[in-house]
Every structure is written in C-alpha cells, then in structure tokens.
Amino acid sequence: MNIETVKTYILIFLVVISLVLTLALSNNQPKQDTIHKATSEYVNEVDLGGQEETKHRMIEPKSIIFHNHDRYYGFSEQSADKELYHEMQEWALDDVKTNVADGPPMDDIKVEVIFPTAMPVEVIKSSFKIDAEATLPDWSFQRMFITLNQSESVLNVHFISTDDRKEVTAVVRDSKLYNSLRGYMAEDLELSEFMVLNNGHFPIYLPVEEPEMKARSFAVDHIDTDLLINALFSNPSSVNLNAGEAYYTDGQRGMEILNDGGSMEFVNPIHSNKEHKDAMELLDQSLGNINGHKGWTDKYFLEEIDANADLIRYQMKYDDYPVYNGSGLTVIEQEWFNQELHAYKRPLFSLNNLLTSEAVSLPSGKEISYYLENNDHYKVSSIQDIRVGYKLTYSEQASYSVMLDPSWYVKYNDEWQEIKVEELNSYKKGGS
User: How many CA atoms are closer than 13 Å to the CA of 56, on its beta-carbon side?
Assistant: First the structure.
C-alpha cells in the first residue's frame, strides 16, 4: 500500500470522526433553549382545545330574585336561574325607550335579575331580541327588573343605570310569557326563600336554608405551552426559555409559567400613548382574541369589565356556580393597550374526568349573615357581594388533579375571600 492510499484512508477516518462528534454535540444541546426553530412566521391559527364563545353566552346573571311584597324567593339551583334567563333572552322586547328613573320600580311583585358587573347598555342588543336599529344610551347597568302589568297581561322590562337615575324600558307583549312568569310566584313551584343583607347600595340576597351541593375531584388536561407561544408571540422562532426559569421571552414580550405549571402570565410592554376603549370595544376585542385560539377550555362567564383600566376578567364556573382560587387558577384576565394585548393571565389546564363526588351541606344564609355582621374583620357597608361557589385546589400529585369544594365567598375590598366553616362556627349565635 503506497503512501497516497494511506493518506486517503486517514482523511476518510478523520471526516467520519468529525461527523460523529458533530452529531453527538447536536443531540446534547438543550432542546428548550430556542422554541420553534423551524417556525419563522406568526402562527395565525392556534387551538388550545377549547371553544369559541359569544356575548350572548358569556354574559349571565349571578342571581334571579322574585319579589313578592316584602318577601324574597329564588331557585335553590343555579341551573334553574340559567334556564329562566335563557328563556328571557328569547323574549321580543318592543317599545324600547330611555327614561329618567328614581331607583328600581316600586311594584310589590317583580323579578330582579342581577349581573356580576356593570355592563354597557349596548350589550342588550347582543343578549336579547331587540330591534337592531334601536338607539341606546352610553351608560351602564347591573340590574334588570321585570314588572307585571295585570290589566294588559304584558311584562315591562327595566334596565336600571348603576346610579339608579336612568332606565331603558321595553315591553313584552305575550300573555303566555306573562302567565309563565306569574306562575313562578305560585306556592307549588317550591321556590326557596331568601333573605336580604343591606350593605348600603345594592342589596345582597342569601338563601335562608342550607345550600346542598357536591364536592368533586377531577383529572385534568394540560395546555401545551408551545401553543400559547404560537398564539401570543408575533415571531415564535425568536422565543427563548431562560435557563433555570419557567420564563419565555423574545426580548420584549414575556410569558411566565406559574403555580407548578397550573397557570401563565403574559406581558407585552408597550410604550405609546394610551387611548381608553369603551366597554363594548374592550369586550369585543377580548372575546375575539380568546376565540382566535379557542381559549375557552372550561366554562367561564364575564365577571368584571373595567373600561378605565382597559381590563376584563372572566371567572370559571362549574355546574353554573363560580369557581375560586387564591392563586388565580380560575380566572382568565386580559388588559389591552390600544389595539394590542398588554397582559394576559389564564389557567393552563382544563377539567377532564370526574374522579369522586360527595354531597355537602353548607351553612345557611342566616348563619352567614350573622357571622359577617358580628365579625370585626368585616364592615357590612363595605361588603360588595356574597356567593356560594367552589374552592379549587390544584395538585401536581397523582398525575395532576383538582378538588372542587363547595364554600361561601364574600367579596371585600375587591377580592373574593372564602368564609371558612371553622371560623364561622365560632360566630354562630350562642357561640364563643
């Protein structure tokens, strides 16, 4: 074998060694350093596995109360409130007018529909059957009343402004609907009795008896972080995962994974003059954005809309009851800056298979009222709302699961706080 042949074999050997080392180094590079290297364009269509929603479905009342002179009644199940409200959405509203008001109608017999937040009157057009050409004012309402005109067998609908000084009225000319609503006042319909806690503004209604619910546990499905990167970053290929942190950034925008992978927070710093949207624009823009990546991975409802802060918040619900968690695992929240999404918080899981279910009785509304009125930690005039709901506990153990435990909640200083049974017991009448 001559010297040239030997050199050729040596060269081939060195090339092979070089290729092997290059491949080995490539395989050992951290796969999380750069996300979506093969993607250089914004991904327009992203599906988080949820569904699209409309204003018609997202806006629902938190309670429906029947006034019968000085007594109050309501359904024992939230699902019945929802069913009646969906019937109301099919009513044909005629003779729409805007009037001066002096608080709610004074009729002894009426129905009060209470929404979780003040909403622009314009949403009436997307929530009810009303003439699309009807002219509506630009103020907000949180309560709707239905009064019964016995002489004409018609229903009068009143949307009362949040300052109680204005109203939009309409007429429902259908005797069958009149008789149906009147029938709810009959004794044989088994409505539950409610009591009222007066806080100086909107009255808060509580069931007199003990609410019956079920504690449940669920397996969960997790949302792929890569999908949110595609949905929220204009150039996913430039997004990096900071070493040792659950924080993704393209150098400007950032997305942090929180609560052991249970939620995320996206922030897009924007440096320009801010122009506030009105509430309808904010609602339309937010719904369009979340629908764009099918982000309604569980059932949610509109909880709060603050046009002054360009902020909108949706609350998770299960079995038509609100679901709460102190770490934000049950809230979808967005803040907008002109036409751009400035901040976005949401859970990274959805409820899947039901694992366990157990009946639970909660304290009565009387006990809750006594507790709040005799507790030094609360000033009744500052209590904003009280609800029955579920407390969600997220666990990364046992392949991830969540617990939904029924509980009472009070909204105080703009925060929902759980009323714990062990604390309540010490304030019961006759207790220490």
Answer: 12
Nearest CA-CA partner of 123 in 55, 213, 43 = 55
How many of the other CB atoms lie within 10 Å of CB of 16? 10
Q: Report the percentage of the chain scoring pLDDT > 90.
A: 70
**Measured distance CA(179)–CA(357) in Å, rounded:** 38
- Residues with Cβ < 8 Å from 429, sequence gap 6 or more? 370
Beta carbons within 8 Å of 313's beta carbon, 6+ residues apart? 302, 303, 304, 305, 331, 332, 333
Instruction: With residue 160 as reference, give the H or E element that holds it.
Output: strand 154-161
What token pair was written down for 294?
Answer: 């099918």
What single letter denotes the amino acid at residue 141? F
CB burial of 47-71 (b: ≥16 within 10 Å; e: otherwise) equals ebebeebebebbbbbbbbbbbeeee
Number of H helices and E strands in the chain, helices first, is 9, 24
Three-state SS for 255? strand
- Given the structure tokens 């979506």, which residue do they identify? 36
CATH architecture of 34-59+211-432: 2-Layer Sandwich (3.30)
Q: How far apart are CA 1 and CA 105, in angstroms?
A: 110
Residue 359, both tokens:
């009946």
pLDDT digits (tens, 9 = 90+) for 360-378: 999 999 999 999 998 888 9
Contact between 225 and 348 (Cβ < 8 Å): yes
Amino acid at 377: H
Question: Mean pLDDT lowest for which of 186-200, 220-234, 378-392?
Answer: 186-200
DSSP state of 244: T
Instruction: Give the range among 20-34, 139-153, 261-275, 364-378 with minimum mean pLDDT.
Output: 20-34
Mean pLDDT, residues 229-257: 90
Please tell me the distance from the alpha carbon of residue 35 to that of residue 227, in angstroms, as a whole number: 11
Domain boundaries, the chain: 34-59+211-432, 76-190
CA angle 291, 295, 298 (to 5 degrees): 120
Residue 283 amino acid letter: L
Helix (H, G, I), strand (E, B) or coil at 80: helix
Q: What pLDDT digit, counting tens, does each position of 120-153 carry?
A: 999 999 999 998 888 899 999 999 999 999 999 9
